[in-house]
Every structure is written in C-alpha cells, then in structure tokens.
Design a protein that fits this description.
Number of strands: 20
Helix content: 25-40%
Strand order of the largest sheet: 4-3-2-5-15
Largest sheet: 5 strands, parallel
Distance between the termini: 28 Å
CATH architecture of the domain at 138-231 and 381-442: 3-Layer(bba) Sandwich
CATH class of the domain at 138-231 and 381-442: Alpha Beta
Oligomer: single chain
Length: 565
C-alpha cells in the first residue's frame, strides 16, 4: 500500500511540474477577511454583505425585493438609520474601497440611501435578538444619533429603554442642525418611529439636570447612557461681536428648524468657518435670498466639511474666501452691523489636528461689508445639571475603553465624549456603549472583537474584474434649488442600485466566480450542491487528499478568500 501511495505522489508531482505548477506542503483554506470599506466604517456596517446580497440575487434565486430586504436587515444589524446615513454620512467607506484602485470606488452611500428608503416604503420592522424582556431598565439621555443607536441596540437585547429628550422632537442635530434639502424630516421621523416600535419610549421636553435629576435616574435605572451631543455654538471672541446681527450657526439653524427663521433676504451674510455647520448655514441663507460669502482661515484642503457639500455650495454660487480670519465686528452709530474687519493668513506648522496652523500676516487687515455675521467655528455640550461629568481639562465627558464615565453604571458617547464628530461615528459609539451596558448589567466582561485581517488590493487577482463606470448620484439643478428646500440629491432607481452593487469586488468573501474550481488541475476543488450553499459563505470545498499545494487556486482567487497554510 505504501508503495502505491508513493507512486501516486510521484505521479502527481510529475504532472504538477509538467503543467508549470509547483508542489508544496501548503494546503488551501477558505478564509473570510475584512473588506477595507467595513474597516473604515465607524458604524461597522456590513457593507460587503448588503452589496453582495443585492448583486447575487439571481445566483440564489431571490427576487429583487427579497434581496433588498435582506440588505436592509444586514445593514440594520449595526445601524438603525440607513435612510438618514445615506444622506448625511461622509462615507469614509468609499475612500478606502479597493475598487478605487482599479477604476472608481463604489457609490456605497447612494446604495445605502436606497436601502433605507426601501425599508421605509415597505414598512420593514426591526427584529429583536431575544424574546425575553429583561427586568433591568436603562435610561438614555439625548435622542441624537448616539442615543438612538444605543437605545436601539439595548431594546433589541430585551431591555426596557426610556430616552429623555430636552427638545420637543427627536434627532438632536440631525433635526435641528441639518437642513431639509439634505435630510427631510419625514425620513428622520420614519426611522425614529421604527426604533420606537421596538419598545423604546422617548420622553420629550424633559431635560435631565433640570426636569429630572441624574440621581433620580440612577435610583430607578440599572444603567444610564449620556448622548447629549454638543449643541451650543462657540463665539468668535472678538470686539463688536455682542449684539444684534451676529448669531452663531447652531442658534441660526435651530431657529430655522423651529419656524423662527431669521430674515436674511437681500442681506449680505458672512459665515465664518469651514465645517459642515458653516456650509449648512450658508446654503440656508442663500435659499432664503441672502448674498452669502464664507470666510475660512485655512485653505480648502483643510476644510473639515464634506467634499461634496463644498462642491454643491460652490455650484450654488456661494463664494468661499480662504486664508482669512475675523478681527472685529464693525457697527454704525446705531449699533447695526456694517462689516467685518479681517486679516489675511498664511499656513505655518501643523497643529494638534494635523492641519497647518494659520498665521496672521502683519499689515494685511481689510473690511468685508456685511449685514449679518454667522460664526460656525465649533460647538460644545450644555452641561446644565450634569456638571459633575465634565472633564475640566478637555471640556468633554471622559470615558474608559468601555464607554463608562467616572460614575459607575453611567456611560456616555457621541460628540459629548469625542468632540465634534460625524453621525456615523456617533452611531458606532452608541452601539459600542450598548454592548458594554449589556455586559455591565450581566456582570460579564465586555466581549472583545477580533476582526479578520483586511483585504489589500495588491493581494487580489484584480484582473478578473471587468472595468465598470461608477453610477453617480443624481441632483436637481441649481435653478431648481433657489428659494426652496427641496431635497438636492435624488435616490437612485432600482436598476442603477443593482448595477452599482454588481461592481462590488466582494473583497475577502467568496462570490462564486468558479476560478478555484476551473484552475485546479487535480480536481481538488469540489462544487457544493446548491441547497447547501448559504448566501454568505463557501460555495466550494477542498478535497485535500487530491491537492499538491500548487497555490493556483489562491493565486487566481479574485477576492483573496483563499489562504495557503
């Protein structure tokens, strides 16, 4: 018997060399890896999962509707608001998309938006992870993205959750900071309602620290999560700032959303800053008939606002003047704003943010005419009644690696802990805290997550993928935007979503290309029966007894799903 086996091995080895292969002791193994899009997503959304669910409908005999619902459920495992994030997320995922190194990154954000809209239109309901209703109650302070995310994940785990919201409506800066041409209120309302359907109670017009104390909550709830955001705007700290005609962007946008819109029609409005709030304040003013200009102390490369929002702003004819800093507000004898004294700047060494520090140029002062000035240079939390949680050094709430504050059983996340961040970062922090709260109540360790290695483009057989142009977002014309708050970006049609999803390279996960099966010369790869194949997982299996370790399957696997070990 041993002689037969040795003879067979020699024969296989000879055949391997004859075909140009190389015999090895290594053997193939299917090994899922982390796609760079998911690694870049602060919400940890299963981006590859929802894209390939749509792309592979025919492979698994699903209808488009079945795949769209599957995509929605995969997405909402980590984030309950795909329609919201599909409109306001800066889509870090697209910046890291491997497809960008071949032609263009996937339009992930637009597919995300479609999935969210689909869930709303079809009235899809979130599913709990357990049928158990736990006796331990959890309080969430603030119904912004961090608070809603935390409440959602806790409710899914069976906890009774009460959200305390100081405002008359939910959403935080999603509602009171982002204009409706970017995020219509009915979209936000629908996705909040779906969270409430899980049993989450939201108490409006209830400010913790004023209407109810933190100590009262601690006596009634097993844990507390603080997600109050940062909704107080900074002042410029320059002469002449106090008085009518100067209003920070947070207050300005809040008035707009609550029906107290400031009359800027025909006025010259200066917006100071380079973040999203500055962009929003300027575009709201333009829609309300103002002549608007943005002043920013650095260059466009340093602007923290989303690139696409800056582009839309410039398309609307709003001028951005760079390397300019405010020095003093000028007023006439009646105290009316007439202009803003400014100073030209140049960029010096990088500061703590990594951006080059603006340095004043001596003797470069000049005046820009203005009727109204809107500073949009930063925000901070309102700590009234929660002063004990404020870190005196940083000005934010300090938390440990598990999102717990210095008070046992009290957790925090979002802008109130991390400084001004993005909506997707707040969603991710809310989810992280919910997992930690669940472990805390159970008296267990917070589970550690060990994601598999990230797929790198250079390790993929990228030649397998055919070039395909990106499906770009659709927008209404500038003329159609003037004087109204109609949504600018339009949701992709179903066919376009399917087309774009098929551009996904399925980095690190099998998508049934057959390469490993076709390129194996030794029948060491076997196709699984269709009824054994799961939507995400192996479609083949290795017959290692026939394998000589030639590595051809791994070399020809487009998505780098096969390791030789």
């Amino acid at each position: 018997m041993a002689v037969v086996l040795k003879t067979r091995k020699r024969a296989i080895g000879a055949a391997s060399y004859a075909r140009g292969g190389e015999e090895s002791h290594l053997r193939p193994r299917y090994s899922e890896k982390t796609p760079p899009c998911r690694n870049a997503c602060p919400s940890n959304n299963d981006i590859r999962g929802f894209l390939t669910a749509i792309a592979q409908s025919e492979d698994f005999g699903r209808s488009n509707d079945e795949s769209f619902e599957m995509a929605w459920r995969l997405y909402t495992e980590t984030n309950p608001m795909p329609a919201v994030l599909g409109r306001v997320c800066p889509h870090f995922c697209e910046s890291d998309c491997n497809r960008a190194q071949k032609d263009e990154a996937l339009s992930i954000n637009q597919v995300e938006r479609f999935i969210g809209n689909y869930g709303i239109e079809k009235g899809l309901k979130h599913e709990k992870l357990t049928d158990e209703t736990k006796s331990d109650k959890v309080a969430v302070i603030g119904s912004g993205p961090a608070g809603l995310s935390c409440a959602f994940q806790l409710a899914r785990r069976g906890y009774p959750v009460t959200v305390f919201e100081a405002a008359p409506k939910s959403g935080g800066m999603l509602r009171y900071g982002i204009p409706s041409y970017r995020l219509p209120e009915d979209i936000l309302d629908a996705e909040v309602a779906a969270i409430e359907d899980l049993g989450v109670e939201i108490k409006y017009d209830t400010k913790v620290g004023k209407d109810v104390s933190l100590d009262d909550l601690k006596s009634e709830y097993a844990a507390i999560y603080i997600g109050i955001g940062a909704q107080e705007g900074w002042t410029l700290g320059i002469p002449g700032e106090e008085g009518e005609g100067v209003m920070n962007a947070v207050e300005y946008l809040n008035k707009f959303h609550t029906g107290e819109a400031v009359d800027v029609s025909g006025k010259k409005v200066l917006v100071i800053g380079g973040g999203n709030s500055a962009i929003d304040a300027s575009r709201v003013s333009w829609r309300n008939g103002a002549d608007v200009k943005i002043l920013y102390r650095r260059t466009r490369d340093e602007m923290p606002a989303e690139y696409e929002e800056i582009e839309d702003t410039l398309e609307e004819g709003i001028e951005i003047e760079y390397l300019v800093a405010p020095v003093a507000v000028e007023r006439d004898g009646d105290g009316k704003v007439t202009g803003l004294k400014c100073q030209k700047m140049e960029l010096g060494e990088p500061d703590e943010s990594g951006r080059r520090r603006p340095v004043p140029i001596e003797g470069s002062e000049f005046v820009v005419e203005a009727d109204m000035i809107i500073p949009a240079i930063g925000q901070q939390p309102d700590y009234e009644g929660l002063e004990q949680l404020k870190d005196p050094e940083s000005g934010w709430i300090a938390v440990d690696e598990n999102s717990m504050t210095t008070i046992e059983g009290t957790f925090a996340g979002g802008d109130v802990t991390a400084g001004l961040g993005t909506v997707t970062e707040a969603i991710g922090l809310g989810r992280k805290a919910a997992i930690a709260i669940d472990a805390h109540i159970k008296g267990e360790e917070v589970p550690k997550e060990y994601p598999p290695p990230i797929v790198k483009y250079e390790n993929m057989a990228s030649g397998h993928y055919k070039p395909a142009a990106r499906v770009e977002k659709q927008v209404i014309s500038v003329d159609e935007r003037r004087g109204n708050f109609n949504e600018v970006v339009q949701t992709l049609f179903e066919d376009a979503v399917i087309e774009e999803s098929k551009r996904c390279m399925s980095c690190g996960m099998c998508f049934g290309c057959d390469n490993c099966y076709m390129f194996c010369s030794y029948s060491a790869v076997k196709k699984k029966p269709k009824d054994e194949i799961k939507p995400t997982g192996d479609r083949y299996e290795f017959r290692l007894e026939a394998c000589v370790g030639c590595k051809k399957c791994a070399e020809e696997c487009p998505c780098n799903y096969i390791d030789m070990v």
